[in-house]
TrEMBL record:
Membrane-topology annotation of the record: Multi-pass membrane protein
Family the UniProt entry places it in: Belongs to the major facilitator superfamily. Phosphate:H(+) symporter (TC 2.A.1.9) family. Belongs to the major facilitator superfamily. Proton-dependent oligopeptide transporter (POT/PTR) (TC 2.A.17) family.
Residue stretches spanning the membrane: 44-65, 71-92, 216-239, 260-280, 312-331, 343-364, 388-407
Protein name: Protein NRT1/ PTR FAMILY 5.10-like
Signal sequence coordinates: 1-15
Subcellular location: Membrane
Length: 419
Protein backbone atom coordinates (compact mmCIF):
# COMPACT_ATOMS: atom_id res chain seq x y z
CA UNK A 1 0.00 0.00 0.00
CA UNK A 2 2.84 2.37 0.82
CA UNK A 3 4.52 1.66 -2.52
CA UNK A 4 1.37 2.30 -4.56
CA UNK A 5 0.58 5.39 -2.50
CA UNK A 6 4.01 6.68 -3.51
CA UNK A 7 3.27 6.02 -7.19
CA UNK A 8 -0.07 7.85 -7.02
CA UNK A 9 1.62 10.71 -5.17
CA UNK A 10 4.10 11.02 -8.04
CA UNK A 11 1.21 11.06 -10.54
CA UNK A 12 -0.55 13.77 -8.51
CA UNK A 13 2.63 15.83 -8.36
CA UNK A 14 3.16 15.49 -12.11
CA UNK A 15 -0.41 16.61 -12.76
CA UNK A 16 0.21 19.84 -10.91
CA UNK A 17 3.85 20.38 -11.83
CA UNK A 18 4.00 19.58 -15.55
CA UNK A 19 1.51 22.12 -16.99
CA UNK A 20 2.31 24.84 -14.43
CA UNK A 21 6.12 24.81 -14.57
CA UNK A 22 6.26 25.60 -18.30
CA UNK A 23 3.70 28.37 -17.99
CA UNK A 24 5.56 29.81 -15.00
CA UNK A 25 8.87 29.67 -16.88
CA UNK A 26 7.41 31.43 -19.93
CA UNK A 27 5.86 34.07 -17.65
CA UNK A 28 9.37 35.18 -16.65
CA UNK A 29 9.74 36.92 -20.04
CA UNK A 30 8.41 40.45 -20.40
CA UNK A 31 6.33 40.62 -23.60
CA UNK A 32 6.60 44.42 -23.62
CA UNK A 33 10.39 44.21 -23.85
CA UNK A 34 11.47 43.55 -27.44
CA UNK A 35 14.63 41.66 -26.46
CA UNK A 36 12.84 39.42 -23.95
CA UNK A 37 9.93 38.86 -26.33
CA UNK A 38 12.39 37.61 -28.94
CA UNK A 39 14.13 35.38 -26.38
CA UNK A 40 10.77 33.95 -25.32
CA UNK A 41 10.31 32.44 -28.78
CA UNK A 42 13.26 30.13 -27.98
CA UNK A 43 12.11 29.22 -24.47
CA UNK A 44 9.95 26.23 -25.43
CA UNK A 45 12.67 24.94 -27.77
CA UNK A 46 15.33 24.79 -25.08
CA UNK A 47 12.87 23.63 -22.44
CA UNK A 48 11.99 20.55 -24.49
CA UNK A 49 15.64 20.01 -25.46
CA UNK A 50 16.90 19.86 -21.87
CA UNK A 51 13.90 17.96 -20.52
CA UNK A 52 14.40 15.32 -23.24
CA UNK A 53 18.15 15.26 -22.74
CA UNK A 54 17.65 14.78 -19.02
CA UNK A 55 16.03 11.42 -19.72
CA UNK A 56 19.36 10.06 -20.93
CA UNK A 57 20.90 10.40 -17.45
CA UNK A 58 18.55 7.98 -15.68
CA UNK A 59 18.72 5.66 -18.68
CA UNK A 60 22.50 5.46 -18.65
CA UNK A 61 23.25 5.90 -14.94
CA UNK A 62 20.27 5.17 -12.70
CA UNK A 63 19.27 2.01 -14.57
CA UNK A 64 22.75 0.58 -13.95
CA UNK A 65 22.66 1.60 -10.27
CA UNK A 66 19.22 0.08 -9.71
CA UNK A 67 20.12 -3.25 -11.31
CA UNK A 68 23.63 -3.59 -9.88
CA UNK A 69 23.76 -1.59 -6.62
CA UNK A 70 20.17 -1.78 -5.43
CA UNK A 71 16.82 -0.03 -5.73
CA UNK A 72 17.24 1.84 -2.43
CA UNK A 73 20.15 3.79 -3.89
CA UNK A 74 18.39 3.99 -7.26
CA UNK A 75 15.39 5.73 -5.68
CA UNK A 76 17.44 7.59 -3.08
CA UNK A 77 19.54 9.56 -5.57
CA UNK A 78 16.50 11.11 -7.35
CA UNK A 79 14.98 11.89 -3.93
CA UNK A 80 18.11 13.81 -2.88
CA UNK A 81 18.24 15.60 -6.25
CA UNK A 82 14.58 16.65 -5.88
CA UNK A 83 15.29 18.07 -2.42
CA UNK A 84 18.19 20.10 -3.81
CA UNK A 85 16.10 21.41 -6.72
CA UNK A 86 13.33 22.42 -4.33
CA UNK A 87 15.84 24.41 -2.28
CA UNK A 88 17.18 26.14 -5.41
CA UNK A 89 13.61 26.94 -6.50
CA UNK A 90 12.69 28.44 -3.14
CA UNK A 91 15.91 30.48 -2.96
CA UNK A 92 15.05 32.03 -6.33
CA UNK A 93 11.53 33.03 -5.26
CA UNK A 94 12.35 36.77 -4.75
CA UNK A 95 13.54 37.01 -8.38
CA UNK A 96 10.44 35.52 -10.05
CA UNK A 97 7.73 37.41 -11.90
CA UNK A 98 4.12 36.60 -11.06
CA UNK A 99 1.15 37.35 -13.27
CA UNK A 100 -1.61 39.20 -11.43
CA UNK A 101 -5.14 39.50 -12.77
CA UNK A 102 -6.09 43.11 -13.40
CA UNK A 103 -9.59 42.92 -11.92
CA UNK A 104 -9.09 40.00 -9.54
CA UNK A 105 -12.00 38.04 -11.04
CA UNK A 106 -11.87 34.27 -11.32
CA UNK A 107 -11.19 33.46 -15.00
CA UNK A 108 -13.41 30.35 -14.94
CA UNK A 109 -16.33 32.34 -13.53
CA UNK A 110 -16.10 35.23 -15.98
CA UNK A 111 -15.71 32.93 -19.03
CA UNK A 112 -18.51 30.58 -17.99
CA UNK A 113 -20.69 33.66 -17.42
CA UNK A 114 -20.29 34.54 -21.11
CA UNK A 115 -21.80 31.23 -22.20
CA UNK A 116 -24.62 31.52 -19.65
CA UNK A 117 -25.47 35.09 -20.70
CA UNK A 118 -25.28 34.23 -24.40
CA UNK A 119 -27.66 31.32 -23.84
CA UNK A 120 -30.12 33.51 -21.92
CA UNK A 121 -30.06 36.16 -24.65
CA UNK A 122 -30.26 33.60 -27.47
CA UNK A 123 -33.47 35.06 -28.90
CA UNK A 124 -32.56 38.67 -28.22
CA UNK A 125 -31.42 40.94 -31.04
CA UNK A 126 -29.55 44.26 -30.98
CA UNK A 127 -32.64 45.79 -32.62
CA UNK A 128 -34.71 45.08 -29.54
CA UNK A 129 -32.06 45.61 -26.88
CA UNK A 130 -29.44 48.30 -27.25
CA UNK A 131 -25.78 47.51 -26.60
CA UNK A 132 -22.47 49.27 -26.91
CA UNK A 133 -22.55 49.31 -30.70
CA UNK A 134 -19.05 50.74 -31.10
CA UNK A 135 -17.59 48.04 -28.86
CA UNK A 136 -19.45 45.31 -30.71
CA UNK A 137 -18.19 46.65 -34.02
CA UNK A 138 -14.61 46.45 -32.76
CA UNK A 139 -15.19 42.94 -31.45
CA UNK A 140 -16.79 41.75 -34.69
CA UNK A 141 -13.90 43.15 -36.69
CA UNK A 142 -11.45 41.19 -34.56
CA UNK A 143 -13.26 37.91 -34.97
CA UNK A 144 -16.21 36.92 -37.11
CA UNK A 145 -16.36 33.46 -35.51
CA UNK A 146 -18.74 32.46 -32.72
CA UNK A 147 -20.72 35.70 -33.06
CA UNK A 148 -23.50 34.14 -30.95
CA UNK A 149 -21.32 34.87 -27.91
CA UNK A 150 -21.64 38.59 -28.65
CA UNK A 151 -25.13 38.35 -27.19
CA UNK A 152 -23.55 37.97 -23.77
CA UNK A 153 -22.98 41.75 -23.97
CA UNK A 154 -26.70 42.50 -24.20
CA UNK A 155 -28.13 43.87 -20.97
CA UNK A 156 -31.84 43.74 -20.11
CA UNK A 157 -32.04 47.51 -19.77
CA UNK A 158 -29.87 48.16 -22.82
CA UNK A 159 -26.82 49.14 -20.76
CA UNK A 160 -23.61 47.33 -19.84
CA UNK A 161 -22.78 47.49 -16.17
CA UNK A 162 -19.25 46.68 -15.06
CA UNK A 163 -19.03 43.72 -12.71
CA UNK A 164 -22.58 42.57 -13.39
CA UNK A 165 -22.50 41.85 -17.09
CA UNK A 166 -19.85 40.43 -19.37
CA UNK A 167 -17.17 42.69 -20.82
CA UNK A 168 -15.81 42.69 -24.34
CA UNK A 169 -12.61 41.13 -23.06
CA UNK A 170 -14.62 38.30 -21.45
CA UNK A 171 -16.31 37.55 -24.78
CA UNK A 172 -13.02 37.68 -26.65
CA UNK A 173 -11.43 35.29 -24.12
CA UNK A 174 -14.36 32.89 -24.47
CA UNK A 175 -14.02 32.93 -28.25
CA UNK A 176 -10.29 32.23 -27.96
CA UNK A 177 -11.06 29.10 -25.92
CA UNK A 178 -13.56 27.85 -28.49
CA UNK A 179 -11.13 28.48 -31.36
CA UNK A 180 -8.72 26.01 -29.74
CA UNK A 181 -11.17 23.10 -29.90
CA UNK A 182 -10.76 22.24 -33.64
CA UNK A 183 -6.97 22.40 -33.34
CA UNK A 184 -7.15 20.13 -30.29
CA UNK A 185 -9.21 17.52 -32.15
CA UNK A 186 -7.16 17.60 -35.35
CA UNK A 187 -3.95 17.01 -33.36
CA UNK A 188 -5.27 13.69 -31.99
CA UNK A 189 -4.04 11.83 -35.08
CA UNK A 190 -0.52 13.00 -34.27
CA UNK A 191 -0.88 11.96 -30.62
CA UNK A 192 -1.94 8.42 -31.63
CA UNK A 193 1.17 8.09 -33.78
CA UNK A 194 3.20 9.58 -30.91
CA UNK A 195 2.21 6.59 -28.74
CA UNK A 196 3.68 4.00 -31.14
CA UNK A 197 7.49 4.35 -30.67
CA UNK A 198 7.30 3.19 -27.05
CA UNK A 199 5.00 0.28 -27.90
CA UNK A 200 4.77 -1.24 -31.38
CA UNK A 201 8.04 0.20 -32.69
CA UNK A 202 9.72 -1.54 -29.75
CA UNK A 203 7.91 -4.78 -30.55
CA UNK A 204 9.25 -4.59 -34.11
CA UNK A 205 12.77 -4.10 -32.81
CA UNK A 206 12.66 -7.23 -30.59
CA UNK A 207 12.64 -9.46 -33.70
CA UNK A 208 15.48 -7.69 -35.53
CA UNK A 209 19.27 -7.72 -35.36
CA UNK A 210 20.26 -5.05 -32.83
CA UNK A 211 24.01 -5.74 -32.79
CA UNK A 212 25.59 -2.40 -33.68
CA UNK A 213 29.16 -2.76 -32.43
CA UNK A 214 30.63 -6.29 -32.57
CA UNK A 215 28.80 -8.27 -29.87
CA UNK A 216 27.08 -5.30 -28.20
CA UNK A 217 23.29 -5.60 -28.49
CA UNK A 218 21.14 -2.56 -27.75
CA UNK A 219 17.92 -3.36 -25.82
CA UNK A 220 14.85 -2.92 -28.00
CA UNK A 221 13.24 -0.50 -25.54
CA UNK A 222 16.34 1.73 -25.61
CA UNK A 223 16.12 2.37 -29.36
CA UNK A 224 13.37 4.91 -28.79
CA UNK A 225 15.51 6.94 -26.42
CA UNK A 226 18.71 6.65 -28.42
CA UNK A 227 17.21 7.63 -31.77
CA UNK A 228 14.37 9.98 -30.79
CA UNK A 229 16.12 11.70 -27.88
CA UNK A 230 19.39 12.14 -29.77
CA UNK A 231 17.54 13.50 -32.82
CA UNK A 232 15.75 15.97 -30.52
CA UNK A 233 18.95 17.10 -28.85
CA UNK A 234 20.68 17.53 -32.21
CA UNK A 235 17.85 19.11 -34.19
CA UNK A 236 16.46 21.59 -31.65
CA UNK A 237 19.66 23.70 -31.63
CA UNK A 238 19.70 23.52 -35.45
CA UNK A 239 16.09 24.67 -35.53
CA UNK A 240 16.64 27.50 -33.04
CA UNK A 241 20.02 28.75 -34.30
CA UNK A 242 19.83 28.03 -38.04
CA UNK A 243 16.26 27.50 -39.23
CA UNK A 244 14.61 30.29 -37.19
CA UNK A 245 17.09 33.06 -38.14
CA UNK A 246 16.76 32.17 -41.83
CA UNK A 247 12.96 32.04 -41.61
CA UNK A 248 12.96 35.26 -39.53
CA UNK A 249 14.89 37.07 -42.25
CA UNK A 250 12.29 35.98 -44.82
CA UNK A 251 9.03 36.34 -42.85
CA UNK A 252 10.10 39.18 -40.49
CA UNK A 253 8.44 37.27 -37.62
CA UNK A 254 10.30 36.91 -34.27
CA UNK A 255 9.62 33.16 -34.28
CA UNK A 256 10.48 32.69 -37.97
CA UNK A 257 7.27 30.83 -38.79
CA UNK A 258 3.88 30.99 -37.14
CA UNK A 259 2.88 28.52 -34.44
CA UNK A 260 0.27 26.89 -36.68
CA UNK A 261 2.78 26.50 -39.50
CA UNK A 262 5.19 24.84 -37.12
CA UNK A 263 2.53 22.43 -35.86
CA UNK A 264 1.48 21.65 -39.43
CA UNK A 265 5.04 20.71 -40.42
CA UNK A 266 5.22 18.43 -37.39
CA UNK A 267 1.93 16.72 -38.25
CA UNK A 268 3.17 16.10 -41.80
CA UNK A 269 6.49 14.64 -40.60
CA UNK A 270 4.61 12.40 -38.17
CA UNK A 271 2.50 11.18 -41.08
CA UNK A 272 5.64 10.39 -43.09
CA UNK A 273 7.15 8.62 -40.07
CA UNK A 274 4.27 6.18 -39.64
CA UNK A 275 4.09 5.56 -43.41
CA UNK A 276 7.79 4.69 -43.38
CA UNK A 277 7.17 2.37 -40.41
CA UNK A 278 4.55 0.54 -42.49
CA UNK A 279 7.02 0.07 -45.36
CA UNK A 280 9.72 -1.23 -43.01
CA UNK A 281 7.27 -3.68 -41.43
CA UNK A 282 6.33 -4.98 -44.90
CA UNK A 283 10.05 -5.48 -45.56
CA UNK A 284 10.48 -7.29 -42.22
CA UNK A 285 7.58 -9.66 -42.92
CA UNK A 286 8.91 -10.38 -46.41
CA UNK A 287 12.33 -11.18 -44.93
CA UNK A 288 10.75 -13.58 -42.42
CA UNK A 289 8.99 -15.40 -45.25
CA UNK A 290 12.15 -15.47 -47.37
CA UNK A 291 14.19 -17.16 -44.61
CA UNK A 292 11.40 -19.48 -43.47
CA UNK A 293 11.03 -17.87 -40.05
CA UNK A 294 7.29 -17.24 -40.10
CA UNK A 295 6.57 -19.96 -37.51
CA UNK A 296 9.64 -19.18 -35.40
CA UNK A 297 8.57 -16.20 -33.25
CA UNK A 298 11.75 -16.28 -31.12
CA UNK A 299 14.13 -16.36 -34.07
CA UNK A 300 16.02 -13.21 -35.01
CA UNK A 301 15.09 -11.84 -38.43
CA UNK A 302 18.28 -11.31 -40.49
CA UNK A 303 17.48 -7.62 -40.87
CA UNK A 304 19.32 -4.82 -39.12
CA UNK A 305 17.46 -2.63 -36.64
CA UNK A 306 19.02 0.31 -38.48
CA UNK A 307 16.03 0.00 -40.81
CA UNK A 308 14.00 1.45 -37.94
CA UNK A 309 16.23 4.51 -37.61
CA UNK A 310 14.40 6.70 -40.19
CA UNK A 311 10.99 6.26 -38.56
CA UNK A 312 12.46 7.02 -35.12
CA UNK A 313 14.40 10.05 -36.35
CA UNK A 314 11.41 11.38 -38.30
CA UNK A 315 9.28 10.95 -35.17
CA UNK A 316 11.86 12.94 -33.17
CA UNK A 317 12.02 15.77 -35.71
CA UNK A 318 8.20 15.78 -35.88
CA UNK A 319 8.19 16.35 -32.10
CA UNK A 320 10.49 19.36 -32.52
CA UNK A 321 7.86 20.97 -34.73
CA UNK A 322 4.53 19.60 -33.47
CA UNK A 323 5.17 18.97 -29.79
CA UNK A 324 6.95 22.25 -29.05
CA UNK A 325 4.61 24.09 -31.41
CA UNK A 326 1.58 22.79 -29.52
CA UNK A 327 3.13 23.80 -26.20
CA UNK A 328 3.72 27.35 -27.38
CA UNK A 329 0.35 27.55 -29.15
CA UNK A 330 -1.76 26.48 -26.17
CA UNK A 331 0.26 28.77 -23.91
CA UNK A 332 -0.08 31.85 -26.11
CA UNK A 333 -3.67 31.44 -27.29
CA UNK A 334 -5.45 31.28 -23.94
CA UNK A 335 -6.31 34.20 -21.62
CA UNK A 336 -3.39 35.48 -19.55
CA UNK A 337 -4.70 33.99 -16.30
CA UNK A 338 -5.28 30.54 -17.84
CA UNK A 339 -1.80 29.78 -19.16
CA UNK A 340 -1.35 26.62 -17.10
CA UNK A 341 -4.80 25.43 -18.20
CA UNK A 342 -3.72 25.96 -21.80
CA UNK A 343 -0.69 23.72 -21.29
CA UNK A 344 -2.91 21.19 -19.54
CA UNK A 345 -5.05 21.14 -22.69
CA UNK A 346 -1.90 20.41 -24.72
CA UNK A 347 -0.98 17.55 -22.39
CA UNK A 348 -4.51 16.16 -22.62
CA UNK A 349 -3.97 15.69 -26.38
CA UNK A 350 -1.22 13.18 -25.61
CA UNK A 351 -3.25 11.45 -22.91
CA UNK A 352 -6.36 11.09 -25.05
CA UNK A 353 -4.21 9.97 -27.99
CA UNK A 354 -2.72 7.17 -25.90
CA UNK A 355 -6.20 6.06 -24.83
CA UNK A 356 -7.41 6.12 -28.44
CA UNK A 357 -4.38 4.08 -29.50
CA UNK A 358 -5.16 1.46 -26.84
CA UNK A 359 -8.82 1.43 -27.90
CA UNK A 360 -7.88 0.93 -31.56
CA UNK A 361 -5.52 -1.92 -30.72
CA UNK A 362 -8.16 -3.67 -28.55
CA UNK A 363 -10.94 -3.18 -31.10
CA UNK A 364 -8.86 -4.36 -34.05
CA UNK A 365 -7.49 -7.32 -32.09
CA UNK A 366 -11.03 -8.50 -31.27
CA UNK A 367 -12.19 -7.91 -34.84
CA UNK A 368 -9.29 -9.74 -36.52
CA UNK A 369 -8.95 -12.78 -34.25
CA UNK A 370 -12.38 -14.26 -34.93
CA UNK A 371 -12.63 -17.88 -36.13
CA UNK A 372 -9.17 -18.68 -34.75
CA UNK A 373 -7.31 -16.49 -37.23
CA UNK A 374 -4.10 -14.65 -36.41
CA UNK A 375 -4.93 -11.04 -35.74
CA UNK A 376 -3.01 -7.90 -36.60
CA UNK A 377 -1.32 -8.07 -33.19
CA UNK A 378 -0.64 -11.79 -32.87
CA UNK A 379 1.96 -12.87 -30.31
CA UNK A 380 3.95 -14.30 -33.21
CA UNK A 381 4.86 -11.00 -34.84
CA UNK A 382 5.80 -12.81 -38.04
CA UNK A 383 2.16 -13.77 -38.52
CA UNK A 384 0.80 -10.43 -37.33
CA UNK A 385 0.12 -7.41 -39.52
CA UNK A 386 1.50 -4.33 -37.85
CA UNK A 387 1.90 -2.97 -41.37
CA UNK A 388 -1.90 -2.89 -41.76
CA UNK A 389 -2.22 -0.99 -38.49
CA UNK A 390 0.48 1.48 -39.52
CA UNK A 391 -1.27 2.09 -42.84
CA UNK A 392 -4.51 2.65 -40.92
CA UNK A 393 -2.75 5.25 -38.74
CA UNK A 394 -1.32 6.80 -41.90
CA UNK A 395 -4.85 7.18 -43.25
CA UNK A 396 -6.07 8.69 -39.98
CA UNK A 397 -3.09 11.06 -40.01
CA UNK A 398 -3.93 12.17 -43.56
CA UNK A 399 -7.51 12.92 -42.54
CA UNK A 400 -6.37 14.74 -39.41
CA UNK A 401 -3.76 16.72 -41.35
CA UNK A 402 -6.31 17.77 -43.97
CA UNK A 403 -8.75 18.85 -41.26
CA UNK A 404 -5.96 20.72 -39.50
CA UNK A 405 -5.08 22.65 -42.67
CA UNK A 406 -8.74 23.59 -43.09
CA UNK A 407 -9.14 24.93 -39.54
CA UNK A 408 -5.68 26.51 -39.38
CA UNK A 409 -6.37 28.62 -42.47
CA UNK A 410 -9.42 30.19 -40.83
CA UNK A 411 -7.87 30.53 -37.37
CA UNK A 412 -7.72 34.03 -35.91
CA UNK A 413 -4.79 34.53 -33.55
CA UNK A 414 -5.54 35.99 -30.17
CA UNK A 415 -4.27 39.54 -29.83
CA UNK A 416 -1.55 40.06 -27.26
CA UNK A 417 -2.65 41.43 -23.93
CA UNK A 418 -0.54 42.04 -20.89
CA UNK A 419 -1.51 41.16 -17.35
Amino acid sequence: MFFFFSLYLVALAQGGHTPCVQAFGADQFDEEDQKECKAKSSFFNWWYCFSSGGILVPLLVLTYIQENLGWVLGFGIPAVVMCLTLIVFLVGTPTYRFRISKDGRNPFVRISRVFVKAAKNWRATPVVLSVDEEALAILSKKCTQFKFLDKALIAPDGLIEDGKFCSIEDVEDSKSILRLVPIWFTALGYSIVYAQPSTLFTKQATTMDRHFISSFEIPAASLQQYFITVSLIVFIPIYDRVFVPIARAITKKPSGISMLQRIGIGLFLSLVSIAFAALVEEKRLATAIEYGLVDKPNAMIPMSAWWLAPQYVLAGIADVFAMIGLQEFFYEQVPCDLKSIGLAMYLSILGVGSLLSSFLVSFIENATTKHGQDGWFANNLNRAHLDYFYWLLTGLSVVGFAAYIFFAQSYTYRRRSHA
